[in-house]
Structure formats: structure tokens, C-alpha cells
UniProtKB/TrEMBL annotation:
Family label: Belongs to the glycosyltransferase 9 family.
Species: Duganella dendranthematis
UniProt-listed Enzyme Commission number(s): 2.4.99.24
CDD domains, A to Z: GT9_LPS_heptosyltransferase (cd03789)
Tagged with keyword Transferase: yes
Gene for this chain: waaF
Protein name: lipopolysaccharide heptosyltransferase II
Catalysed reactions, semicolon-separated: an L-alpha-D-Hep-(1->5)-[alpha-Kdo-(2->4)]-alpha-Kdo-(2->6)-lipid A + ADP-L-glycero-beta-D-manno-heptose = an L-alpha-D-Hep-(1->3)-L-alpha-D-Hep-(1->5)-[alpha-Kdo-(2->4)]-alpha-Kdo-(2->6)-lipid A + ADP + H(+)
Enzyme class: transferase
One of the Pfam families matching this protein, by short name: Glyco_transf_9
Gene3D superfamilies, alphabetized: Glycogen Phosphorylase B (3.40.50.2000)
Key words of the record: Glycosyltransferase, Transferase
Length: 347
């Protein structure tokens, strides 16, 4: 008989995947002898390859949003041969719960989600109001509880990723980044929507304060291809001669992880790159507007979250419903610099 294994079905978002990583720490502590595999979309799989608890990453072959019942059945047949004794289904949709059910995995753990009775046979229910993301996923390591509340939350491990010196050196060489000079990474994008974005001119003003303190600093602007314009606006606001790299869409996620691991500090909106920086334990300045800083905070040893906590926030909307975007526009570069400067000094 093959060795018993655990299957994790990953969330579809980078930040959520990072915040689910403490669940794997708890599962590994409970069964140190049991390999843990993660089934993840290709866009998220590089995150799991930097998690020490993961033995193998399996990439999903499915199109986003499509049921593809025949393909899921075929994939489940492949999983059946791998000897999984339990599966933790982190997305809340029926289509992901189908896979371990069709694969005949005996123990299938997850939240009710889309009324997944039967497909999930160890069913958890979320708290009202919803708990922060790390406790939300970590709770799946324990039996479901009927009494809810913060008193039931034990101290949890922090999200943790690792990047090797070889990975960091390789990305610096490919991108032309001088390994002898400091790097500050800025992430002006946010997949959720424009409301989460700190203005590009604010990022540029903060970068100028960084450069005034240490002119040798290299500014790395990170993001997806969708963020290239925002990063270009930041770069355009910097003095001539600045060592600035607009890397939006120019790196793989694995390369971005390695570069963040090399950074002296990271400044980011509430985004996947923010949570990667946190899990790599880099100094992090997190900027929150329409989202709740207590729901998905950074966990680095050196971390600061800034939110103006206006009466209209957190609205959790993709676009500002009032049209003024005050929660981000009025979060000034001076305020951000007050929180970032001590982190740079500590480094």
C-alpha cells in the first residue's frame, strides 16, 4: 500500500494561498510523517513551491469558472492512485469539492460554501462576523466547533515562505539589479480593483523620501502586466538617474518572490505581493483603504499597517462608491514615511 498522503486544494488567489499556509504547519505538526501535496492553479502554484511543508505541487488543468465535469472526473481518477487519506478543500465552490469526492478520499474537510453537503464530510461553519483569514483557514486543522468566538482561537503560526540565496542571486543577475545595493520594492497594484490602489504619485513621493535617505537604493516596481501603467507613473515621478526597475509583467511570480526576499523593505497595497512579503518576513508597510487591516494583516517582525479608518471605510468595494477615494488619497506620503523610515533604519 502506498504511503498515506494529505491533499490541500489551494485557494485561487495569491494572498489567500499565503494566508492558508499556517494550516499546513499545523497539519505537519500533527502528522510529521505524512507527505502534504497541494493542488493549485498555475498562477498560484509558485507560492506553494516556497513553502517548506509542501512535498509536491500539482497544478490544476481546469479553466477558471468552468465546471468541466468530465475533466474533473478524469483528474480525480489520477488522484485516487496517490493514496490520499484526507483532503482539505479551501475554495468554497462545489466544483473543487467534487474532485476529492470523485477521487474517493475518505476524509474531506472544508467549509459549507455552496451547500456542499456530502462532498464535505467534516464540515466547518464560519463565524459572524467573519474571522481574519489566517484563523479562518487554520481552523480546518481542528475538529469543527459549535461554539464560536475569539476565545477559541489559540496562538497560531504565522504564514511562512522561504527563498534560497541561489534564487535571489539568479533574479538579481537576470534583471540587472546590483546585489551590493539596497532594494526597496513597491507594489502599486491590487487585483481587487482601483479602490485598493494608493495613488501612483504618492508612491513616487515616498520613493523620493527613500532615495533622499539613501541615494544608492534601487527601486523595484512589482506587479502583474495590468499594473505596468501604474508602475510607469511611479517611475516617471522619480528623479533622473534613479535606479528604478518597472518589473510589472516582467517577472514570473517565482522571480517576484525571490526579489521580495532580497528587499530591504516592501510597500504595498492590500494585495498578494503584500502577503508574500509578510510570509518572507521582510519589513512591510501595508496600505489599506476600502479593506479591513485587521482581516488580512502582515505578520513580519517589522510590519506596519496604515488605515485612516474613515467613517466610509472599510466599504469593501472595487470602486469608491462616493467617488472621492479619500481613504487612499488622504493617506499621505508623509504619514507613510513616518512608518517606513524606522524600518529602514532598523535594517
Amino acid at each position: 500500500m502506498s504511503q498515506p498522503r494529505t491533499l490541500i486544494i489551494s485557494p485561487n488567489w495569491i494572498g489567500d494561498a499565503v494566508m492558508a499556509q499556517p494550516l499546513l504547519q499545523l497539519l505537519r505538526a500533527a502528522h510529521p510523517e505524512r507527505p502534504i501535496d497541494v493542488l493549485a492553479p498555475p498562477a498560484v502554484s509558485p507560492v506553494w513551491r516556497q513553502a517548506a511543508e509542501v512535498d509536491e505541487v500539482l497544478e490544476t488543468p481546469f479553466r477558471h469558472g468552468a465546471l468541466q465535469l468530465k475533466q474533473r472526473w478524469q483528474f480525480a481518477r489520477l488522484l485516487r492512485k496517490r493514496g490520499y487519506v484526507d483532503a482539505y478543500i479551501l475554495p468554497n465552490t462545489i466544483k473543487y469539492a467534487l474532485i476529492p469526492w470523485l477521487a474517493g478520499i475518505k476524509k474531506r474537510v472544508g467549509y459549507k460554501g455552496e451547500s456542499r453537503y456530502g462532498m464535505i464530510n467534516v464540515m466547518h461553519h464560519d463565524e459572524v462576523p467573519p474571522r481574519p483569514m489566517v484563523p479562518f483557514y487554520a481552523a480546518l486543522a481542528k475538529p469543527p466547533v459549535t461554539v464560536q468566538g475569539p476565545g477559541l482561537r489559540a496562538a497560531l503560526p504565522r504564514p511562512r515562505l522561504v527563498a534560497s540565496a541561489e534564487q535571489m542571486a539568479a533574479v538579481c543577475e537576470r534583471l540587472g539589479i546590483d546585489p551590493a545595493r539596497p532594494v526597496v520594492a513597491l507594489a502599486p497594484g491590487a487585483e481587487f480593483g482601483a479602490a485598493k490602489r494608493w495613488p501612483a504619485q504618492h508612491f513616487a513621493s515616498l520613493a523620493k523620501a527613500v532615495l533622499a535617505r539613501e541615494p544608492a537604493t534601487q527601486i523595484a516596481l512589482l506587479g502583474s502586466p495590468k499594473d505596468h501603467t501604474a508602475c510607469a507613473e511611479v517611475a516617471a515621478g522619480l528623479p533622473d538617474g534613479t535606479a528604478v526597475f518597472n518589473l510589472a509583467g516582467a517577472t514570473s511570480l517565482a522571480e517576484a518572490i525571490a526579489l521580495i526576499a532580497r528587499a530591504a523593505a516592501v510597500v504595498a497595497n492590500d494585495s498578494g505581493l503584500l502577503h508574500i512579503a509578510s510570509a518572507l518576513n521582510r519589513p512591510v508597510l501595508a496600505l489599506y483603504g476600502p479593506t479591513d487591516p485587521d482581516h488580512a494583516p502582515p505578520f513580519s517582525d517589522l510590519a506596519a499597517s496604515i488605515s485612516l479608518r474613515l467613517d466610509c471605510s472599510p466599504c469593501k468595494q472595487r470602486e469608491c462608491p462616493l467617488g472621492h477615494h479619500d481613504c487612499m488619497v488622504k493617506l499621505t506620503p508623509d504619514l507613510a514615511w513616518q512608518r517606513l523610515q524606522p524600518m529602514l533604519a532598523a535594517g
